[in-house]
Every structure is written in C-alpha cells, then in structure tokens.
Write a structure and sequence with these properties.
245 residues, alpha+beta, six-stranded mixed sheet, three-stranded antiparallel sheet, 2 helices, 19% helix
C-alpha cells in the first residue's frame, strides 16, 4: 500500500507494510508555513481478485491548534472509512462463500474529493464516495466540508450568515424557482420539497453557494445529485465572508 500526500506542490510517497488504514498523515519539513492550513490527502489503493479500491481522502494540515485540525480530519474520516471497511468486509465474505448467486467480481470502491473554494477565510470541498457491491448499479454518496481558517472549525450553513438573518427564506425561494423550471426531474414534480433543514448539505463553489441532495432524496437515480447554485452576492453583507468573494 502507498500513501501519497500532496501539499502545496510537495509530494511525499511512503510505502506502508501494514494493511490497516494509516492514522497519521505524512508531514514534511519542506512546508514553508506550518501555521497555514493546507489540504493534503490520505490514499488507499488495493487491487484484489474480489475488490478494486482507490480511496483518496482530504486531510487538513498545519493550523495553530492541532486538536481542532484533528477534529475536522476525524469528521471527514468517519464519513468515509466506515463505508470503506464495510464494503471490504462484504466483498471478502461473498468471495469466500460459493453459491451466493454468482456475483460478478471484482467489486469496486472509489472515493475522491474536489476542492471548490480556498479564500483568505475559508476552504470548501466535497467528497464523492462510490461503491459497487453487485446489483443493477453502484451507489455514490456525497459529503462536503467548509472550514473557517481563522476559527479552524467546520462551518454549518447557518454559520455562513450573520445572527438573525433568515437565510432559509431566500434559499428556499431560489430552490423552488429552479425546480419549477424542470419539475419532471423531481419526485412528485418537486412538490416533496418543503424547504431546507438545519443540517442542510452545502459547499461553496467559486462565487456560488451550492445546496445539494443525495441520490434518491428528492429525485430519481437518473437525475443524479440535485444541486442548486445560488450566487453569494444574493445574500449581500449577510454572508459573513462576503469580502472574500
């Protein structure tokens, strides 16, 4: 197994003899500013008879408070690694037991992340985890993370706005408007959308706030991940980080 860490253009490759998932991200003395938060990655690559696995997980490095950085990394790992471990277990069990309906091997597990914003104040990114464990098609799960660089904390959707601002009203109105343009793409012509919740998934992409839903959540599988882009300028100075965008 190899772990590849790519931070600020510096790539470090280290061979691991153990088969377990590495708990510590590799560091390098070549990083110029250790206090500046950087995005690195953990990588797992396996090529087995019963499972093809290519998992890349974003990890933060640097910062001023290691405890806070570790909490963010733990959150990311806990969103992804339990799925990886369960997929590995299922694939091995089916492969070792004949007479299981002759599943087609190898099964597949892929995970990759995309950085969508890195301003003076925040980092935003999302991760797509895909697994195929038999059946008609595989399944993909999206998770996202927006980090306040100064506070070194994950930011909720509510945390993007000043206290008391009714951000939900503007977002709900815009989502309903976008759904109305293609209602056939959604369950019950979009009537099932009742507004965003307090734990709504989102990320920031350039100058847009992106609200998204999982597969099957408000639309059929063929529609993919329903995403609704809302220009950040729509919120004006109610958006805490407006000076960055």
């Amino acid at each position: 197994m190899s772990i590849i860490t790519n931070i600020a253009g510096v790539m470090v490759i280290s061979s691991m003899l153990c088969t377990g998932y590495p708990q510590q991200l590799l560091t390098t003395s070549e990083i110029i500013n250790e206090n500046q938060i950087q995005v690195g990655e953990k990588s797992i690559v396996k090529n087995l008879d019963y499972l093809k696995e290519d998992v890349k997980i974003p990890q933060l490095m640097g910062g001023n408070e290691l405890k806070k950085i570790n909490l963010i990394n733990d959150t990311i790992n806990n969103d992804i690694m339990p799925k990886v471990n369960e997929a590995e277990k299922i694939a091995k069990e089916y492969f070792d037991k004949p007479g299981q309906g002759n599943p087609t091997f190898p099964y597949e597990v892929y995970s990759k992340y995309t950085s969508t914003a890195n301003s003076k104040s925040i980092i935003s990114m999302y991760n797509d985890y895909y697994e195929y464990l038999g059946g008609a098609h595989g399944m993909t799960y999206k998770t996202s993370y927006t980090i306040d660089k100064e506070k070194e904390e994950l930011v909720s959707l509510k945390g993007l706005f000043i206290n008391g601002y009714n951000y939900k009203e503007l977002i709900n109105k815009e989502i309903k408007n976008q759904i109305s343009k293609n209602p056939e793409n959604y369950f019950n012509s979009g009537e099932e959308f009742k507004g965003i919740n307090d734990n709504q998934s989102f990320y920031i992409d350039n100058d847009d706030l992106v609200i998204y839903y999982q597969l099957y959540e408000i639309a059929p599988y063929v529609a993919g991940f329903p995403e609704f882009k809302i220009p950040l300028k729509s919120f004006g100075e109610n958006f805490i980080y407006y000076k960055d965008f």
